[in-house]
Design brief:
The chain is an alpha/beta fold and about 220 residues long. It is about 40% helix and about 10% strand.
Length: about 220
C-alpha cells in the first residue's frame, strides 16, 4: 500500500463493470437451442470461460471441441450488442486513475468484447492500464492465472492490490492469486456465495467501492 492506496485495482468485466448477463444468456440460449440441447443450466458459465466449462463439465457437448463450441456461442452475440454499465463502474475506474492507482481488467471474455465494453459501454479504456482476456491464459477462473498475469504486467504484489468480482469463480481466482482484499458485487451471485468464496465484503454495485478502498479523498 502507498498512502493507504492499493498498489492496483483489479476488476472483472462482465457482471462487475458491465451488466452483460442478458446478452450472454441470450447467446447461450440461442446456441443451445440450435443444437437441440434443452435444460442446460446457464449459471454454469457465469464468470468462467466457456471453453473451460465445455471441457470440464459433463453435458450434451461431451467429446466435442471446447474451443469450437465457445466460438459458436460468441457467434450468437450480435455485433451491435453493447452492455449497460453497472452503477458506479466508470466512477471507480476514473477515481483510481485520478489517484494514480493502476487499473487492470481481468476477464473471462475475449479481447474484442473487452475492448467494446471498455471503450463503448463505459468510455474508460484510456484509464485501463492492463487488460487480461480469455486469450491470455491457459486456464480461466477460478484458476488464478489471469490475476497473477495482471499483477506481473503491472509489476505489483498481488497482496497489496484490491480486486472486485461478481462471481464465486472470480473471487476464488483473485484469492488464489494472493489478493487479500477481494470485494464482491452481487449483480449475478448471492452475497453468501461471494463471501464463501473469499470476498471480504459485498456491495450491490460499484457506487460505494471507490470510497471503501480509499480512492476518494
Amino acid at each position: 500500500m502507498r498512502d493507504g492506496l492499493p498498489a492496483a485495482l483489479l476488476l472483472d468485466l462482465d457482471g462487475t463493470l458491465v451488466d452483460s448477463e442478458p446478452i450472454h444468456r441470450a447467446a447461450y440460449g440461442a446456441f443451445f437451442a440450435s443444437r437441440g440441447w434443452d435444460g442446460v443450466d446457464l449459471s454454469l458459465f457465469t464468470g468462467r470461460r466457456a471453453e473451460d466449462v465445455f471441457l470440464s463439465t459433463p453435458g450434451p457437448w461431451s467429446g466435442a471441441d471446447p474451443d469450437e463450441l465457445a466460438a459458436a456461442v460468441v457467434s450468437h452475440v450480435p455485433v451491435s450488442a453493447t452492455p449497460e454499465p453497472v452503477r458506479g463502474a466508470a466512477g471507480v475506474v476514473e477515481a483510481a486513475a485520478a489517484r494514480g492507482v493502476p487499473v487492470a481488467v481481468v476477464t473471462s471474455a475475449g479481447p474484442a468484447w473487452a475492448e467494446r465494453s471498455l471503450a463503448d459501454a463505459l468510455g474508460v479504456r484510456r484509464h485501463v492500464d492492463v487488460v487480461v482476456t480469455a486469450d491470455d491464459v491457459l486456464a480461466g477462473k477460478p484458476d488464478p492465472a489471469g490475476f497473477a498475469l495482471a499483477c506481473a504486467r503491472l509489476g505489483v504484489d498481488a497482496s497489496c492490490c484490491v480486486a472486485v468480482e461478481d462471481s464465486a469463480a472470480g473471487v476464488a481466482a483473485a484469492v488464489a492469486a494472493g489478493v487479500v482484499d477481494v470485494y464482491g458485487v452481487s449483480t449475478t451471485h448471492a452475497d453468501e456465495e461471494l463471501v464463501s468464496a473469499g470476498a471480504v465484503e459485498v456491495f450491490p454495485d460499484l457506487t460505494a467501492v471507490a470510497d471503501r478502498v480509499g480512492l476518494v479523498r
